[in-house]
Amino acid sequence: MSSEVLIEVSHLVKQYDENAVISDLSLTVHKGEVVVIVGPSGCGKSTLLRCMNGLEPIQGGSVTFRGESVDGSSKSVGRIRQKVGMVFQNYELFPHKTVLENILLAPLKVQKRARAEAEAEALELLKRVGLPDKRDSYPRQLSGGQKQRVAIVRALMMHPEVILFDEVTAALDPEMVREVLVVMLELAKQGLTMVIVTHEMSFAKAAADRVIFIDDGGIVEEGTPEAFFEHPSTERAQRFLNTFTYEKILK
């Protein structure tokens, strides 16, 4: 991890009508860092990710990528989203397109890359995530775990500097969760900058450089995985962790 700051969130405020979902939240994400965000449902985790990607308008504070404002209404947001990729909980694959067509759509249409070069990279990435034989399959022919791995490949194809993962295993059957987490853990080992919202505590412990615990729209506690899981300093974090029984499922 370098000292270079890629994403900076400063005094962020996000409201829906009069309801403040995020209140005065600040954090930085450094190049090569894996930041895992945990917290109870409805505390603002997913909203925070969407603000980082310009998918949600904000009501206060700022979000920047490499010093440039991330504003969903600006002309530069499309370019920034290529650098700040996102993988969603529900895959967002086009059902009428094959796996390869889904993966190639943005590189060819948005980045205007040569088809032969992009296709070669796509096939190599499919091999890396264990799906080399699924290039011509349609999403309906895939399991949930396979769809999520395709969605990760699609994000990687844009050569992002950061990828945001929004509870990508939440909709999966338990036996499919591991296959997705293994891919994400491998990406972390390769130095990809990632911000991950998850309820998988064992994965957070294995993959994170830093764990951020959010509740009620603000950061309650943050630290290394060892400090957060073994010696949480706030009573709120202690109560949160007591609701989980997690084990070392990943090495």
Quaternary organization: single chain
Rg result? 18 Å
**Approximately how much beta-strand content do the residues carry?**
25-35%
The count of helical stretches stands at: 9
Helix content: 25-40%
Mind describing the biggest β-sheet?
6 strands, mixed
Mean pLDDT score? 92
Helix vs. strand class:
alpha/beta
- Total number of strands: 10
> How are the strands ordered across the major sheet?
6-7-8-3-9-10
- How far is the first residue's CA from the last residue's CA? 20 Å
**SSE pattern, N- to C-terminal:** EEEHEEHEHHHEHEHEEHH
Q: Tell me, what's the shape?
A: globular
State the low-pLDDT regions, or none. Answer: none
Describe the structure.
The chain is α/β, with parallel strands linked by helices and 251 residues long. Helices cover 35% and strands 25% of the residues. The protein is built from nine helices and ten strands. Helix 3 (99-109) packs across helix 4, helix 3 packs parallel to helix 5 (144-156) and helix 5 (144-156) runs parallel beside helix 6.
